[in-house]
Amino acid sequence: MSVLVFLVPAALALGLLGLAGFMWSLKTGQYEDLEGAAWRILEDDDIEDAPEREPEGARGRVPEGEQRRKG
Q1: Tens digits of per-residue pLDDT, 1-51?
Q2: Is the four-CA dihedral 42, 48, 51, 55 of positive or negative sign?
Q3: 55-62 mean pLDDT
Q4: How far apart are CA 29 and CA 10, in angstroms?
Q5: What confidence score (pLDDT) does residue 16 get?
Q6: Could you write out the DSSP letters of every residue in the chain?
Q7: pLDDT recorded at residue 42
Q8: How far is the C-alpha of 66 from the C-alpha of 68, rounded, in Å?
Q9: What are the distances in angstroms from CA 18 to CA 3, 14, 57, 63?
Q10: What is the separation, in whole angstroms, between the first and last Cα of the chain?
Q11: Which of 5, 66, 68, 70 stands the most exposed, by the fewest C-beta atoms within 10 Å?
């Protein structure tokens, strides 16, 4: 039972710390734009930077005007 002397104040301190963190996040405006992150993930900004891939079956095909090298 003497352990409760330490656990109850520790639980209250952690609860107050969590409440203080939540109040700080409200004060700094963390919850003002809830839909912005959902729409930003749908933007295709990174597609333009991606290198173009060869279409399936293009590997091994000889471009027009060139001859296949024997080797």
Answers
A1: 899 999 999 999 999 999 999 999 999 998 888 888 788 888 876 666 556
A2: positive
A3: 60
A4: 29
A5: 98
A6: -TTHHHHHHHHHHHHHHHHHHHHHHHHTTTTS-TTHHHHHTT--GGGTTSPPPPPTT-TTPPPTT--PPP-
A7: 84
A8: 7
A9: 23, 6, 57, 65
A10: 85
A11: 70
- The single residue listed with the structure tokens 């399936």 is 56
Rounded to two decimals, the pTM is 0.49
Between CA 40 and CA 33 the distance in angstroms is 11
Q: Name the burial class of residue 23, with classes exposed (0-12), middle (13-18) and buried (19+) by CB atoms within 10 angstroms of its CB.
A: exposed
Q: 14 or 58, which is more confident?
A: 14
Q: How far from 70 is each of 12, 38, 59, CA to CA, in Å?
A: 80, 54, 17
The first and second tokens of residue 56, run together, are 């399936």
